[in-house]
Structures are given as C-alpha cells and as structure tokens.
C-alpha cells in the first residue's frame, strides 16, 4: 500500500470509530419503554440477586417492595466509566426515598473496586455479586442497567447510557406515584 491509500484507510476508520462512539454514548435514546409496554418477569424472585454482598463482605438482600435501580459494571470497562458520572446525579435525587434502592454491582473484589471509587469520588451503594445471574438479567455485555419493581423490569439498557435524563426521572416518578 502506498502512503495515500494508508492515510485514506486510517482516516475512514477514524471516522467510523467516531460515528460508532457517538451512537453508543451521545445519540439521544428514544427507545426507553414506558411502564405499560415492558415485558415482566415470570416470577418476582427471578430478577432479584441472592448472595449479594457489600464491599465489606456483608450479605445484602434486595427488597422486592422497592423500586430497584441495578447497574452491572466493572472498573476496567470503558463504557461503564463513561456512563458512571450520570448515575450519582440520579442516586442523589432518590437516595433518601425509602421506596427506592440502588445497586451498583461488580464481580470484582473489594481490593479492586474500593481504590477505584475512592479515586473517582463516587458515593454510591456498590456491591459484589458472584454467581449466575437470573435469566432475565443474564448477559455478557456491560454495563447492563435495569429498573425493576415487583419482579418486573420496567426498563433496561445494555451498554452505556445517560441515567440522569428527564425520561428516566419521569419513569421513576410515575412508578413511585403508583407505589
């Protein structure tokens, strides 16, 4: 390959990468489902995690009577790190609401997660989960985020998303009004 075709190939690949990143991270999300048309899990317990632990190793139970924001992430995951700054904004809005629980979950050990969250300054409820995810929450991709109530997945997003948007706030507020 001569120099000009190499430069054109590099330029084209750069444009393609930029477009892909834009659509994954910055493009407006219009597919956030409404509460009325979201598929529900067959059993309430099928979307809740057992053997969940806080970063000190203490067991934690998920409350099926609360609206649950569940995010699966990892310290090494680029898209996870891109979406993480929006989660504290949403958390801070609802952290004192006794009808809402947040679970920011990693399968990494506390020795990996604690320095990361200290360095970033995140004050979120981080947890560890080791084991198979329930079928409704199973997947290989991260980040994965779900908003759940009474065993029903109200919305889910696979990949990075903005969680401090008016659409998400509206979804949460609408559900809280019905609790």
Outline type: globular
Q: Strand fraction band?
A: 15-25%
| Domain tally | 2
Question: Assembly state here?
Answer: single chain
CATH uppermost class of the largest domain? Alpha Beta
Number of strands: 7
**CATH superfamily label of the largest domain:** Glutaredoxin
Q: For the terminal residues, how far apart are their CA atoms?
A: 65 Å
The third-level CATH topology of the largest domain is Glutaredoxin
Helix content: 25-40%
Q: Count of helices?
A: 5
List low-confidence stretches. 28-45
Element string (H = helix, E = strand):
HEEEHHEHEEEH
Class from helix and strand fractions: alpha/beta
If you compute it from the alpha carbons, what radius of gyration comes out, rounded to the nearest whole angstrom? Answer: 18 Å
Q: The biggest beta sheet, please?
A: 7 strands, mixed
CATH architecture of the largest domain: 3-Layer(aba) Sandwich
- Please tell me the overall pLDDT: 82
What would you say this structure looks like, in words?
By secondary structure, this protein is an alpha/beta fold. The protein folds into 2 domains: 1-29; 31-178, Glutaredoxin (3-Layer(aba) Sandwich). Helix content is 35%, strand content 20%. It has 5 helices and 7 strands, in the order αβββααβαβββα. It has a 7-stranded mixed beta sheet with strand order 2-1-5-4-3-6-7, with helices on one face. α4 links the parallel β4 (100-106) and β5 (126-129). The longest helix has 24 residues, at 3-26. The protein is globular, with a radius of gyration of 18 Å. Residues 28-45 have low confidence and may be disordered. GO terms for molecular function: oxidoreductase activity. Residues 26-177 form the Thioredoxin domain. This is TlpA family protein disulfide reductase. It is found in: Cell envelope. Keywords: Cytochrome c-type biogenesis, Redox-active center.
